[in-house]
Amino acid sequence: MTKHVNVTTPPDALDEWAQRFALLSDPTRLRLLTHMHLNPSSRVADLAEAAGITQTAASQALRVLRERGWVEGHREGREVYYRLVDQDAHAVLHLTGQSHG
User: Fold this and answer.
1) What's the CA gap between 101 and 87, in Å, rounded?
2) CATH no. for residue 27?
3) Which 3 state secondary structure label does DSSP give 79?
4) Which domain holds residue 71?
5) 21-48 confidence digits (pLDDT tens)
6) Core-most of 23, 58, 63, 65, by most CB within 10 Å?
7) Other beta carbons less than 10 A from residue 36's beta carbon
8) Structural element, H or E, at residue 81
9) Does residue 72 lie in a domain region?
């Protein structure tokens, strides 16, 4: 006979994870995150190329990720470089098989 353990997760925590999974469910954002995971401090142009999208589309997706605190950008001259900073997203990418070179 299987014994079940009742673990209660606070609704707020479940809502937060649902939002995180929603961010990950977008293929474009997932491609950008994967590229940043493997190539820290990536230029917007490199991210757009890796995702197969325009720089404008990449910037829009990066804005969403930046607002959620998943990535940070820094400017060097005219270029903006992004890196993944959210440790949960980092861990999820490892679960999908994205290990560091």
Assistant:
1) 18
2) 1.10.10.10
3) strand
4) 11-95
5) 888 899 999 999 999 999 999 999 999 9
6) 58
7) 27
8) strand 79-84
9) yes
2's CB contacts (< 8 A; 6+ apart) are: none
**In the chain, pLDDT over 90 holds for what percent of residues?**
60
Q: What are the two backbone dihedrals, phi and then psi, of residue 6, each rounded to the nearest 5 degrees?
A: -95, 110
What type of residue sits at position 67?
A: E
pLDDT tens profile 6-24: 567 777 888 888 888 888 8
Domain count, the chain: 1
Which tokens hold the place of 14?
């479940």
Cβ atoms of 84 and 70 closer than 8 Å: yes
- C-alpha 60: how far from chain center: 13
Query: Is residue 6 domain-resident?
Result: no
